[in-house]
Each structure stands twice: as structure tokens, then as C-alpha cells.
Amino acid sequence: MTLSRNARVMSGITILIVPTIMYGGWTLLGILTHGGAGSTASALRLNETQWALWRAGHAHAGVWTLLSLLLQILLDSTRLSTALT
Asked: What does the domain layout of the chain look like in residue ranges?
């Protein structure tokens, strides 16, 4: 299976987003293990609601990124009739 140029570009951009999500995971790990994020352990204090929202937002970012990459590949490999394109 070969991807079109547009699909390769969008897949590449999507893959470049992954380090950002990984950095967010590293920050999240620091918050959960040390209770704070930033240059010092107590630079940022979050209450329970903020922790829950931080975790949920980070998890959703990873899921949506992987889903968009999968859908990009699947949509590019579909064959549509000329009337639909």
C-alpha cells in the first residue's frame, strides 16, 4: 500500500505531535509522583479536580492522535467512484 503525498504529509505532522504528548506524560508523571510540576517540586499545585482534568485531557490527546493517524491511512487506501470525488 502506498500513501498519497497529502496523506504522507499529514501522517508526518501527526507523528511529530507525539513528542509533545510524551512531554505532557512526563509532566503528568511528575505531578502524580511528586505532587507538583515545574522547575521545583512545588512550583505548581493542583487540586483533585484539576488533576482529574489534566489526566483526562492528556489521555484524550493521545487517543485522538493515534485515531487520526489510523483514519488517515484507512481513508487514503479507500477507492471511491469518480462521481464521489
From this structure: 5-75
DSSP state for residue 44 in the 8-state scheme: -
pLDDT of residue 67: 92
Closest CA to 46 of 54, 67, 84, 14: 54
Which residue, 69, 67, 83, 53, is CA-closest to 16? 69
For residues 31 and 15, give the distance between their C-alpha atoms in angstroms, rounded to a whole number: 25
Whole-structure pTM value: 0.60
Q: Residues 19-52, buried b or exposed e (16+ Cβ, 10 A)? A: eebeebeeebebbeeeeebeeeeeeeeeeeeeee
Closest CA to 68 of 2, 1, 21: 21
